[in-house]
Amino acid sequence: SHLLFPGCELTASTKSYTFQVDEKDDSDHILALSVVCLTDGAKDECNVVEVVGRNHENQEIAVPVANLKLSCQPLLSLDNFKLQPPVTFRLAAGSGPVHLAGWHRIVHREDASFEEDDVLSEEDEEEEKELTPIMPAKK
């Protein structure tokens, strides 16, 4: 199920926001970032937004995802940049305000265990019947 991620706002006084899910939750969560934009009151300065997460060795890594400036690039579409919670958004430079928005998807484990490949539709069965078997090569 897709849920709207109402987003967050990063400012000089609130430089970071962490999106996390309940550790007891057995579902898989995907957070997708759609838009990062400067909002009312932003100065004409570089505002760098970083995503802070953990790599495969559980070390913290920070990756810049947006560099916004009111006069040249006040908005950036991230085309549903997918992240695995927990994830922190941090205003690494500038004073904002920068607004982030996207969506949050929850995949329940019992849903994930269902394999579409295990079930053939009638069309798939018809297609399989129409295929000619491969003949062995003549020696």
TrEMBL record:
Keyword Oxidoreductase on entry: no
Chain intervals with Acidic residues compositional bias: 114-129
UniProt-annotated location(s): Nucleus, Nucleolus
Ranges where the record places region Disordered: 114-139
Pfam families cross-referenced by the UniProt entry: Nucleoplasmin
Keyword Coiled coil: no
InterPro entries membership: Nucleoplasmin (IPR004301), Nucleoplasmin_core_dom (IPR024057), Nucleoplasmin_core_dom_sf (IPR036824)
Source domain of life: Eukaryota
Transmembrane parts of this sequence: none
Xref: SUPFAM superfamilies: Nucleoplasmin-like core domain
Main location class: nucleus
Domain Nucleoplasmin core: 7-105
GO cellular component: cytoplasm; nucleolus; nucleoplasm
One MF term in the entry's GO annotations: histone binding
Record's keyword terms, sorted: Acetylation, Chaperone, Methylation, Nucleus, Phosphoprotein
BP-aspect Gene Ontology terms: chromatin remodeling
Biological role stated in the UniProt entry: Plays a role in the regulation of diverse cellular processes such as ribosome biogenesis, chromatin remodeling or protein chaperoning. Modulates the histone chaperone function and the RNA-binding activity of nucleolar phosphoprotein B23/NPM. Efficiently mediates chromatin remodeling when included in a pentamer containing NPM3 and NPM.
Protein family membership: Belongs to the nucleoplasmin family.
Quaternary context: Interacts with NPM (via N-terminus). Forms a pentamer with NPM at a ratio 4:1 (NPM3/NPM). Two pentamers form a decamer.
Protein name stated in the entry: Nucleoplasmin-3
Lineage: Eukaryota, Metazoa, Chordata, Craniata, Vertebrata
